[in-house]
Design goal:
This protein has four domains: about 110 residues, 2-Layer Sandwich (Beta-Lactamase); about 80 residues, Helix Hairpins (Orthogonal Bundle), CATH 1.10.287.130; about 180 residues, 2-Layer Sandwich (Heat Shock Protein 90); about 90 residues. The C terminus is likely disordered. Strand 5 and strand 6 form a beta hairpin. Strands 8, 9, 10, 11, 12, 13, 14 and 15 form an eight-stranded mixed beta sheet that branches. Strands 2-1-7-6-5 form a five-stranded antiparallel beta sheet. A two-stranded antiparallel ribbon has the order 3-4. It is about 45% helix and about 20% strand. The protein has 15 helices and 15 strands.
Length: about 475
């Protein structure tokens, strides 16, 4: 009766299983997909619907009752074929306008489940391969440390015993190379631990001011020797003692300050620490590292925090680095529930800021709540920071000439003292100060740099005289660069 009242022709060629049944649960229609998938070549008419879906329908009082709630939402049901084999489906049952008739619609999801299982298996295999790779890299870097530290230790023992200048210079170079190698190994090791999810933060009580003093002492020598001003400020609101991972905070600060020193030829570098929030026993510390260096284009700033990435290939060639430092910093800061950001203007400088959450020290929190000793600004290599500074990065300006003369004097002194490491450092600063100079000046700088690398005194003397003459011959007006 239901079959005559419902027009089933639109359902016949659908890929979905369609079954119509009456109020007694007897199937009145099954489309082609139902006949094929369920194995009823002669049709399903007269068969109880619970025979196909025993988990959904059951006979009761001359009719049927549902074992599962039905509606517009699909539910996962098992369909049984004529030969009693089964497969999973997504099924729904809808009553029709004609009283006592129902439509059962089901999609075969066997292939979907199989593909989902395969995808999950492939994903798991990829994760296992990544974990094995990370563990391998971590093990290799651990093994590399042993010979590098062995070489470095032997060289340090030989340094006080060596009297010949040439041999002493080569030993110092070996020690320096070992130090650089250890930095690379440490970066790779930290990266591998972070990737493998095996990085653990240490929670210990420490003095944040002593930590800043340590960081300041570690960097002030290189920064001031390069002719840069170095300013450090700790806000009075910062507590004396906190609970957190001091080593990792120092690691982030060291990386940011090293980058600032590397990419800044003139001007200043500043470090500032501020307490920005407190919730219960947790408090947020905010760090700012600013420089007046080469700056970064807005489109390149996102690359900074990507693994193995630098602004461009020339950055690695000019300044070195693996491209892992800032990526590790970002992950370390996020492990400490903070975030790291960068703001920069090309040619004007860069500001890195990051926040971390640390615990309050229960031994001193009462004293800190009542009074905190103010922390003055500490400066090295110059006077207190001014709001306006002359731009020394453009060749030919008065401030540029002053910076060049200062670094040339330090370069001469370093050569006379045969301190070739410092000589190369000042030479790199001079190269940065003459980045937009005329071609003949750039060539003179390059020849002088090559002479210093080869420690050729005659060519160094000639190169300095030539470079000074070219600099003195340039017009001494602020708009000389525009005139060129």
């Amino acid at each position: 009766m239901c079959q005559q009242s419902l027009d089933m022709r639109p359902f016949e060629d659908l890929l979905e299983i369609i079954l119509a049944f009456d109020d007694k649960g007897m199937i009145t229609y099954g489309n082609a997909a139902a006949r094929e998938k369920l194995g009823y070549d002669q049709g399903l008419e007269g068969l109880f619907v619970g025979t196909v879906f025993p988990g959904a329908f059951q006979k009761a009082d001359g009719g049927w009752k549902a074992l599962q709630p039905f509606g517009m939402e699909t539910c996962r049901m098992t369909a049984y074929r004529k030969n009693q084999t089964c497969f999973p489906t997504d099924m729904r049952v809808l009553p029709q306008e004609q009283g006592g008739s129902y439509l059962c619609m089901a999609n075969d999801v066997l292939e979907k489940e199989f593909l989902s299982h395969e995808l999950e298996q492939v994903k798991q295999e990829a994760q296992d391969a990544m974990r094995v790779k990370s563990e391998f890299v971590a093990n290799v870097t651990h093994e590399l440390r042993t010979p590098v530290n062995g070489i470095s230790g032997q060289v340090r023992e030989l340094l006080p015993l060596e009297t010949e200048k040439e041999k002493l210079r080569k030993l110092q170079l070996i020690e320096r190379c070992c130090g650089e190698m250890n930095k690379i190994i440490n970066n790779i090791l930290d990266f591998s631990k972070l990737e493998a999810g095996k990085f653990q933060l240490e929670q210990a009580r420490f003095s944040i001011r002593n930590t800043i003093d340590y960081v300041m002492a570690s960097h002030k020598g290189r920064i001031t020797e390069k002719g840069l001003d170095f300013f450090v400020t700790v806000s009075p609101g910062v507590p004396e003692y906190v609970v957190g991972d001091e080593l990792r905070i120092v690691q982030v600060l060291n990386n940011l300050l090293s980058n600032a020193q590397k990419f800044t030829s003139v001007g200043k570098i500043t470090l500032e620490v501020i307490k920005t929030a407190q919730t219960g026993d947790a408090q947020e510390l905010f760090f700012l590292v600013c420089d007046t260096g080469i700056g970064i284009e807005p489109k390149d700033q996102e690359k900074l925090f990507q693994s193995f990435s630098q602004v461009d290939a020339s950055t690695s060639r000019k300044y070195g680095g693996t491209g892992l430092g800032l990526s590790i910093c970002r992950q370390l800061v996020e492990l400490m529930d903070g975030s790291i950001n960068v703001e920069s203007v090309k040619g004007k400088g860069t500001t890195f800021s990051f926040s971390v959450w640390v615990g309050r020290d229960p031994e001193t929190e009462a004293e800190e709540d009542s009074f905190v000793q103010p922390r003055p600004v500490v400066s090295f290599g110059g006077s207190a920071p001014q709001e306006e500074e002359q731009d020394a990065s453009h060749y030919g300006t008065a401030s540029n000439r002053e910076a060049l003369q200062k670094n040339l004097s330090k370069l001469i002194l370093s050569v006379e003292m045969e301190n070739w490491e410092k000589a190369e450092m000042f030479m790199e600063t001079i190269r940065q100060l003459t980045a937009d100079a005329p071609q003949e000046v750039s060539r003179a700088v390059l020849r002088l740099k090559m002479a210093i690398q080869k420690e050729n005194y005659d060519r160094i003397s000639t190169g300095m005289d030539t470079l000074k003459a070219l600099i003195d011959a340039e017009p001494q007006t602020e708009d000389s660069r525009a005139a060129r």
